Amino acid sequence: MVFNYLSQDEDRRCAVAAIRFARELGQTRALQPYLAEEYRPGALASSDDDLLEFAREYGQTIFHPSGTCKMGTDNMAVVDARLRVNGMTGLRVVDCSIMPALVSGNTHAPVTMIAEKASDLILADAK
Question: I need a surface site. Which of 75, 95, 102, 117 has the fewest CB within 10 A?
Answer without folding.
Answer: 75
